[in-house]
C-alpha cells in the first residue's frame, strides 16, 4: 500500500511540475553531447551534421558495416574525417553523397583509418580526378566501387598498393581515356568494369599488369578502333564486353593475346569489316555476339580455331549469305541442346550457299536453333530464278515474318543469353514482296534442290547479239513443254531473216 502511495505522489509531482521532466531531458542531451566531445565516434555523429552514419554497432571499435551520407559540403581537411579512427574495425564502408553534399575528392583522411576494410563503395560524388594513392594502401581491400561519381581522369598509381583488390567498378562516369599506369598496384584484380563512360582511347599496355583479370567491361563507350596490343597481358581473360561502342573494323589477330576467352560481346557497334583471322587463336571461345552491326559479309576462317563455339549471334546485320565453310567449325556444337544460332534480321538471298540450313534443321537437338532456323527468311528475285521456282512462288506466296530481334519465349531462356535478351537493335529496311520486286520467303520452305547457285544466275544478253540460251539456267524437265513454242518461233524468225537477206 505504501509503494502505491509513493508512486501516486511522484506522478502528481511530475504533472504539477513539468519543468522537472524537461530538466531531466536537458541533462540527458547535455551528457550525450559531453560524451561525444570526449569520446568521438563516427557512428554517433549528430543527425544534423555534415556527415551521418548508420552502423551495425554504435559502440567504439565495434562496428563492422557502416553506411554514411554526406548532406552538406565538407572540406578535405575537416576534423569529421578523423573520427573514423574510432571505427577502424570496419569491414564494409559505403558513402553516399546527397546533391547538396558536393563532395569533389576522395575522402582519403577517413579511408586511411579503415585498415580492415574489404569493401568500399562511394557513389554520387563529383570527383573530377582520382589522384595517386587515393585509397591509402588498404592491404585487405577486395572490392572498390566508384560508380556515378563524374570521374574524368585517373592518375597513374591511383589504386597503388591494393594487393588483394579483386573487383573494381568505374561505371557511369566521364572517363575519356585510359593510360599506362592506371592499374598499377592491383595485381590480383579479376573483374574490371568501366562501362558507360566516354572512353575514346586506351593506350597500348594499359592492362599489361592485370595478369589475373577474368572479366573486362567496356560497354557503352566511344571506342572506334582496337588492336591486339591494347589487350596485351590479359592471358586469363574469359569475358570481354565491347558492345555499344563505335567500332567499324576488327583486324586480324585482334584477340590473340587472350587465349582463354570464352565470351566476346560486340553487339550494337558499327562493324562493317572483320579480318579473316580476327577470331584466330581462341580455342575456348564459346559465345560470340555480333548483333546489330553493319556486316555484309561474314566469311572468316578464324572460327576454325574455335571448336568450342556454341553461341553465335549475327542478328540485324546486312548479310547476303552465310556459307557452310564459315559455319562448319561450329557445326558439331550446333547439334547440342544448349546451342544458339541467331540469324534473323538480315538480307539473305535464297541460293544454294544456304542449303546447309536444311541439314542443320534436321540434325540439331537444340529447340532454339531449330526454331530460329524456321523463322529465317531469304529474298527471291523473279528475274534470276528458274521457272520451276517461279511456279512455286506463284502457288505459295509468303509474307515476311517478324524477326524475333530481342524477344525470347521463356523456353528459350538460357544463361548463355542473359545479355542478349534486352537487346534492341535498330530496325533494318527489308525488301517488300511485290510482283516485280524481291519476294521474301522462309528459307526452309524452299526445297534445297531448287535453291539456285550464284554461278547459274541469269546474265542479260548483249543488245546487239542474238539470244544465247547457254546464259540462262539449265531447263528443267518440267519446263520443257512450256518453252517449246518459244524455241520454234525463234527458229522460224531466224530462217525467215536468212531467206530475206
Give a brief description.
This is Connectin. The protein has 501 residues and is α/β, with parallel strands linked by helices.
Mean pLDDT across all amino acids: 81
How would you describe the oligomerization state of the chains in this entry?
single chain
Instruction: State the distance separating the first and last CA atoms.
Output: 148 Å
Number of strands: 21
Strand content: 5-15%
Q: Choose one word for the global shape.
A: elongated
Helix content: 10-25%
Count of individual helical segments? 9
Largest sheet data: 13 strands, mixed
Secondary-structure-based class equals alpha/beta
Topology order in helix (H) and strand (E) letters: HHEEEHEEEEEEEEEEEEEEEHHEHHEHEH
Computed over alpha carbons, the radius of gyration is: 35 Å
Unreliable runs, pLDDT <50, ≥5 residues? 1-31, 397-414, 425-434, 458-484
The strand order across the widest sheet is 1-2-3-4-6-8-10-12-13-15-17-18-19
Amino acid at each position: 500500500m505504501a509503494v502505491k502511495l509513493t508512486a501516486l505522489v511522484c506522478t502528481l509531482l511530475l504533472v504539477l511540475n513539468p519543468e522537472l521532466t524537461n530538466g531531466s531531458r536537458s541533462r540527458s542531451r547535455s551528457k550525450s553531447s559531453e560524451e561525444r566531445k570526449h569520446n568521438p565516434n563516427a557512428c554517433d555523429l549528430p543527425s544534423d551534421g555534415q556527415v551521418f552514419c548508420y552502423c551495425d554497432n554504435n559502440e567504439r571499435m565495434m562496428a563492422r558495416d557502416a553506411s554514411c551520407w554526406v548532406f552538406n559540403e565538407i572540406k578535405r581537411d575537416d576534423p569529421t574525417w578523423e573520427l573514423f579512427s574510432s571505427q577502424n574495425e570496419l569491414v564494409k564502408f559505403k558513402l553516399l553523397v546527397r546533391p547538396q553534399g558536393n563532395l569533389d575528392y576522395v575522402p582519403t583522411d577517413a579511408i586511411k583509418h579503415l585498415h580492415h576494410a574489404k569493401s568500399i563503395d562511394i557513389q554520387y560524388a563529383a570527383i573530377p580526378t582520382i589522384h595517386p594513392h587515393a585509397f591509402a594502401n588498404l592491404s585487405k581491400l577486395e572490392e572498390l566501387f566508384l560508380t556515378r561519381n563524374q570521374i574524368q581522369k585517373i592518375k597513374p598509381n591511383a589504386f597503388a598498393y591494393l594487393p588483394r583488390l579483386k573487383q573494381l567498378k568505374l561505371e557511369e562516369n566521364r572517363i575519356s581515356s585510359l593510360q599506362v599506369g592506371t592499374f598499377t598496384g592491383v595485381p590480383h584484380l579479376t573483374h574490371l568494369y568501366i562501362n558507360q563512360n566516354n572512353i575514346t582511347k586506351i593506350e597500348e599496355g594499359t592492362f599489361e599488369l592485370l595478369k589475373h583479370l577474368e572479366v573486362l567491361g567496356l560497354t557503352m563507350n566511344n571506342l572506334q578502333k582496337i588492336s591486339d596490343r591494347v589487350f596485351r597481358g590479359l592471358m586469363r581473360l574469359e569475358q570481354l564486353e565491347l558492345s555499344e561502342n563505335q567500332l567499324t573494323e576488327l583486324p586480324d589477330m585482334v584477340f590473340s593475346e587472350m587465349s582463354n576467352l570464352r565470351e566476346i560481346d560486340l553487339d550494337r557497334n558499327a562493324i562493317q569489316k572483320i579480318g579473316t583471322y580476327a577470331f584466330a587463336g581462341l580455342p575456348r571461345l564459346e559465345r560470340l555476339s555480333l548483333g546489330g552491326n553493319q556486316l555484309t559479309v561474314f566469311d572468316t576462317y578464324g572460327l576454325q580455331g574455335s571448336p568450342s563455339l556454341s553461341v553465335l549471334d549475327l542478328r540485324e546485320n546486312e548479310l547476303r549469305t552465310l556459307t557452310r565453310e564459315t559455319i562448319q567449325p561450329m557445326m558439331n556444337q550446333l547439334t547440342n541442346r544448349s546451342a544458339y544460332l541467331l540469324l534473323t534480321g538480315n538480307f539473305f538471298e535464297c541460293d544454294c550457299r544456304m542449303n546447309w540450313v536444311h541439314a542443320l534443321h534436321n540434325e540439331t537437338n537444340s529447340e532454339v536453333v531449330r526454331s530460329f532456323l524456321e523463322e529465317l527468311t531469304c529474298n527471291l528475285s523473279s528475274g534470276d530464278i528458274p521457272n520451276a521456282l517461279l511456279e512455286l512462288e506463284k502457288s505459295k506466296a509468303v509474307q515476311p515474318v517478324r524477326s524475333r530481334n530481342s524477344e525470347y519465349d521463356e523456353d528459350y531462356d538460357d544463361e548463355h543469353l542473359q545479355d542478349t535478351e534486352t537487346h534492341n537493335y535498330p530496325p533494318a529496311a527489308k525488301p517488300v514482296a511485290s510482283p516485280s520486286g524481291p519476294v521474301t520467303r522462309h528459307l526452309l520452305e524452299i526445297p534445297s534442290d531448287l535453291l539456285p547457285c550464284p554461278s547459274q544466275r541469269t546474265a542479260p544478253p548483249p543488245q546487239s547479239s542474238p539470244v544465247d540460251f547457254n546464259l540462262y539456267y539449265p531447263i528443267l524437265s518440267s519446263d520443257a513443254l512450256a518453252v517449246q513454242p518459244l524455241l520454234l518461233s525463234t527458229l522460224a524468225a531466224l530462217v525467215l531473216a536468212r531467206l530475206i537477206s
